[in-house]
Amino acid sequence: MSAIPSIDKRALLLVDLQNDFIHPEGAYARGGAKSADIAALPARLKPLADAFRAKGGLVVATLFTLSPGRGGEPIVSPHLKKLRPFIAKGDFLPGGWGQQLVDDLAHADIAVEKVAFSAFYMSRLEWVLRKSGIEHLTVGGIVTNGGVASTVREAHVRDLGVTVLEDGCAAFSEKTHDEAIAGLRSVAEISTIEKVMAGL
């Protein structure tokens, strides 16, 4: 991996750490899709987010969003509707409470709406990063095998350096998380929150 640039060229990318995914009153909790590992992430990542800001780095949040369509019903991809049939009208609504970054990590310096696993797909993420002079992403969030993995791989093909926080990401099972981290070693540096903080 290439050398990590100065902090002003780095961003902490928080993937999908939103109320509807994590909060006890959010859409996923109402649908019974809970994970202790996922719930623990905001408190674990907060010191790093604070340190990034203090040192002059950017904190960027991706916000999974379901645009309302006919009758206000959310436009949901078929694979997600099959996986999470409980998603309902008003969930992940643009500008709504459920779409927002959880309070422990708010407010991000930059927030970017996303509509698919990859935060680069049909979004302004790359434009924002380039305009901000960002060359390297430190990535934490959910889920390791979905939004995190897809975003990391797309960052790699865009020649952005990437560090994935092994203890700053989570999936709905430890096995799935571990397999996803192993699969990302060829496209990213794998580190921990403690090591990255020490390097700041």
The main sheet orders its strands as 3-2-1-4-5-6
Determine the number of helices (DSSP H or I, runs of at least 4 residues).
9
CATH superfamily: Isochorismatase-like
What is the straight-line distance between the termini?
Answer: 18 Å
Overall form? globular
CATH classification class: Alpha Beta
pLDDT averaged residue by residue: 96
N to C succession of SSEs: EHHHHEHEHEHEHEH
Q: Architecture, according to CATH?
A: 3-Layer(aba) Sandwich
**Unreliable residue stretches:** none
Which structural class best describes the helix and strand composition? alpha/beta
Report on this structure.
The protein is an alpha/beta fold and 200 residues long. The chain has a single domain, classed as Rossmann fold, CATH 3.40.50.850. 36% of the residues lie in helices and 19% in strands. It has 9 helices and 6 strands. A 6-stranded parallel sheet has the order 3-2-1-4-5-6, with helices on both faces. Helix 4 packs parallel to helix 9 (193-199) and helix 7 (144-157) packs parallel to helix 8. The longest helix is centred in the first third of the chain and has 15 residues, at 41-55. The two termini are 18 Å apart. The mean pLDDT is 96.
Essential attributes:
200 residues; alpha/beta; six-stranded parallel beta sheet; Rossmann fold
Secondary-structure topology with pairs:
Layout lengths: L9 E6 L3 H4 L4 H4 L5 H4 L1 H15 L2 E7 L13 H6 L26 E5 L10 H7 L4 E7 L1 H14 L3 E10 L3 H11 L4 E3 L1 H7 L1
Parallel strand pairs: 1-2, 1-4, 2-3, 4-5, 5-6
